[in-house]
Structure formats: structure tokens, C-alpha cells
Amino acid sequence: MKKTKTWLILAVLLIAVLGLAALLLGGNRGEAEAYRTATARTGDIKATVASTGKLAPLHTVKVGSQVSGNIKELYADYNSVVKKDQVVALIDPEIYQAHVKQAEAQLNKAKVNLLKAQKETAAARAAQNNAQAQLFAARAIFREAELDHQRKAKLTQRRAISTSQLDAALARKDNAQGSVRMAQAKLVSAQAQIDKALALEKFATAEIAAREAELQLAVMKLNHCTIRSPIDGVVITRAVDVGQTVAASLQSPLLFIIAEDLKRMQVEVDVSEADVGQIRPGQEVEFTVDAFQEQRFQAKVNQVRNSATSIQNVVTYKIVADVDNDRLLLRPGMTANVTIVLATVGDTLKIPNAALRFKPLGKIGQTRKAKRPPISERPFFKKVVRVLSLDQAQAREFEAILGRAKQQLKAAYSLPEDNRDPAQAWRAFFKQVFSELHTILRQEQYARFAAFRAAFHKARHQRGQGRGRRATVYLAGEDGPVALPIHVGISDETETQVIGGELKAGDKVIVGLALASEGDAATSGGMFMKFFRGGK
User: Fold this and answer.
1) What is the Rg, in whole angstroms, of the alpha carbon atoms belonging to the chain?
2) pLDDT of the residue at 257
3) Could you count the other beta carbons within 10 Å of the beta carbon of residue 461?
4) Taking Cα atoms as reference points, which of 173, 253, 186, 498 lies closest to residue 355?
5) Is the pLDDT of residue 524 over 60?
6) From residue 187, how far is each of 120, 127, 196 by CA, in Å?
7) pLDDT of amino acid 372
8) At what angle do helices 446-463 and 422-439 cross, to 10 degrees?
9) Helix spans in 358-445 (H)
10) Strongest mean pLDDT among 79-88, 116-125, 516-525
């Protein structure tokens, strides 16, 4: 039983191999009929970079709390439209109101202390004035006693009065001198009292300043209990509920996230390092979102950020594109399928990308060689003669100029492929042509020549002439596929621009192998095709 199954499996595999060989190699049809082809055509093409990103508001503000407490009231919710300074939440203010009252009481106490210090200063100044008056009186009495003692001393010498009278005068003098010293001491004490009172007054003034600062801080904390919107916008996130406790210790707790204007948004896209070098501010961006799959939204690259992100050795850079959201269809956080338009070229030759991927399995026919018309019959020559109104002599000289430049171009293309630079060769070609052409023109032709040269270079730049990479496509020939070297430019998801080579619009390029048709049943592989189709 096992041997029977083994032989059956081998037979099926043999039939499959022979059938595949019949598909690929069998048949008596011409080789050209064994391939699928597509027509090279002209049209518009866009070079793009595809990625995914997220929609985000252009400007968002995280609204937090600078004080701790319980959420007493909420005046805004998700999608609420708020204005600047509008109240959006209230934290229970009772504790902070008590702190304000306490600070006010401390301030009033400090003001009372200042008044007491000012009164003591006034009393000390009055005592100083009194001490000064007493000192003045004591000095007057001392002066009088001193003069009386001097008179009586003279009278005693003449024995006009007794010695006891002189002693009494001396005692009055000494007593008056003591009164002067006592008045001086009182004046010094009064000055000390003034200094003390002034110091108390300064201390009371400083205490008032401190209490005012404490009151201001308490009022600020009370005011912070009322949470206001810092901008005009829309609430996109509410992070708290009524009754919830928020603690503003190390960082401000998040209450709301407010978007400034959802009519202006941005797409944030991560682009690989291989593609970021082609992206510039101002490039067009197209994207879709899952919510509106049938619509394509437009944006424009605003910023290519230099900060890199590496995830599992994949390096990406953030691209920011501005979006007009006037209809408010787009919402923050939506996933965007983004296509960044790197370049757009109109009316250019293009072929399917499959034509560049195709490689023939069998023999390759001889490369097609196009028969080039003479220089005088080529479009560029005719256009220059017509636009610049060249006479016959000038036209002959221009034909010779093109011939000399052509030889230089051939010399450049004769270099080994690794050392060949087609872009530089074509730039040198046109530089030589225009330089020599300018020398044979008349004065009245200079202005038209300058305009023609500028327009020609602009059009050539837009078409991408002289740039791109080398590639090979294959055309169906009698002896097999015919290789045709070309230069290709920008590419989109399905087609690639052809910017050089002998390929023309209308040529049929091979894009893959053709499946065998029903008519193959009579060919050398027909028996296998009959078997797979169930035919007889």
C-alpha cells in the first residue's frame, strides 16, 4: 500500500514538471507570442515616497494645576470650544481662602507693630528734646554759679566777705556742674531710646513687607484654584473628574489638553533614512485616512526634523506636513497613509515597472539599432533654425557645430561603463553647442537666442534629461527578446520615466511570460495542457 502511494506521488510530480516545461518551452508559436508586452507611452508621472503617520493639532497646550486639592467643578468637557481666560475647572478654594485670611491677619498685626514702633520713636524724640532743654538749663545754672564763685573769691581776698560765703558759692558751682553732667547723661539715654525705636520701626516695616508677600502668595494660590484656558481652542482630552484629588508636588498634574485650532493640523510621518534625502520643505503630500477611504487629502511638507529615531536598527526621521482641515473631517490621532510627492513630470515617456524587472530565460536577440536621421532633419536643428531665423550660411555653420559636439559626445560614451557619466556628457554637449552658436549670430538675434536657451534648459530640467540611472528593457524580436539600453528617471508605484535611449512611444516592451492559450493543445506540450484542463 505504501509503495503504491509513493509511485502515485512520483507520477504526479513528473506530470507537473513536464507540464511546466511545456508551458515555458513547448509550442510551435513564434517566440514573440510567448511574452506579455506593454506599450511605452507618454503621460504624467510622479515620484513618491509612501509611509504612515499620525494626525496631530498644529499647536496643543497641556493645562495643569499649580495647587493641590479636590476638583470642585468642571466647566469643560471633551470637544468643548473654549476661549482664552475662560474658566474650565475649579479646585476647592476653602483651604486657600483660609490661608488668605491668615495672611491678612498677620499683615495687620505687623502694621500695628509698626505703629507702636513709630510711637516709641516719637516718645524717644520728645525725651531727647527734654534732655536737651535740661542740659541747656543746667549749663546756664552752672555758668551762673561759676561766675558767682569767681566774684566771691576776689571779695574774700580783700576780706570783704567771709570764707564761709566763698565755700557756699563753690558748693553751688559743683552742684550745678553735676546737674550739667546728669542732663548730658539723660540726652545720651534719649538718643539711645531713639535708635532703639528706629530699629523697631525698621523691623516692623520689614515684617510688613514679608506679610504682604505671604498675602500675595496666598492670593495667587487662591486664584490658581480657578483653572482658565490659556488659548482659544477645543478640548481634546479631559484627564480629571469632579471630586478627584490632584497633587501639585514635583510636577503640575494634567487636567486638560487643548488644541488651538483644529482647522489647521499637521501630519507627522516617519520616513526611512534611505528616502529622507529626497524630501524638502514645500513638497506636496497626499494622504488618506481609514475614516474617509474614498477621499484624498492634501498637505505640504513644512519641516524635515534632524532628530533620528532608531527602532530595531531601523533609522527614521520625522517629517511634518501642514494640513488645512476647514471641514473638520480630520481628527487628532488618526492614522494617515501618506504619499510624499518628490517630483512631477508632465508629458514624458514612461513604461511599466515590470518591464525593468523582466529578465529573459532563453537566448537574447541582437540589440536594436535605430537609424538616426541626418542632423539637418532632426527636430532640435529645425527648431533652432526656425526660432532664431538662421539664414542658409548660419544653418550650415550650425550643422557643423552640432557635428563637432556629437563627436565629443561619442567620445564620452566610448569610455568604460564604470567611468561613463552621461549627465556630464550631455551638459558638455549643450554647453559647446550654445557657446559656438552664439558666435555666428547677428546682433538682432541675441535676444531671441537668450530666451530660447533659457526656455530650453528649463524644459530639459523638468523632463530630467541627462540624469537618471542606466537600465535595460527587452522588445520581442524574431530571434528572441531584443535588449534595449535606456536611461530612466523618476518612478511611481507602477511606472518609470524614460529619459534617454532609443525607446520610442508605441514600442512594445516585454513585461513577463504569457500563459499558454487553448490553441496550444495541438502543440508539443498540448497533451499536458489537456491533462491539467481535464480535456480529451
Assistant:
1) 52
2) 92
3) 11
4) 498
5) no
6) 16, 8, 14
7) 67
8) 170
9) 379-388, 392-413, 422-439
10) 79-88
Q: Which three cell numbers stand for residue 352?
A: 511599466
**Contacting residues for 284 by C-beta, under 8 A, at least 6 apart:** 298, 299, 300, 301, 340, 341, 344
SS3 204: helix
pLDDT class for 188, splitting at 50, 70, 90? confident
SS3 call for 83: coil
pLDDT digits (tens, 9 = 90+) for 343-354: 888 888 999 998
Rounded mean pLDDT of 70-94? 93
Query: How far, in Å, CA of 65 to CA of 256, rounded?
Result: 10
Question: Which DSSP category does 240 fall into?
Answer: -
CB atoms within 10 A of CB 443: 6
Please give the Cα distance from 479 to 445 (Å, whole number).
Answer: 52
Residue listed under C-alpha cell 529573459: 360
Query: In the structure grid, which three cell numbers stand for residue 193, read together?
Result: 531710646
Residues 370, 487: contact at Cβ < 8 Å? no
| Burial (Cβ within 10 Å: 0-12, 13-18, ≥19) of residue 398 | buried
Query: CA distances (Å), 118 to each of 121, 123, 195, 346, 356, in order?
Result: 5, 9, 12, 91, 100
Cα dist. 355→37, 324, 384, 467, 497 in Å? Answer: 8, 39, 35, 20, 12
Phi-psi domain of 205 (left: phi exceeds 0; alpha: psi -120 through 50; beta: other): alpha
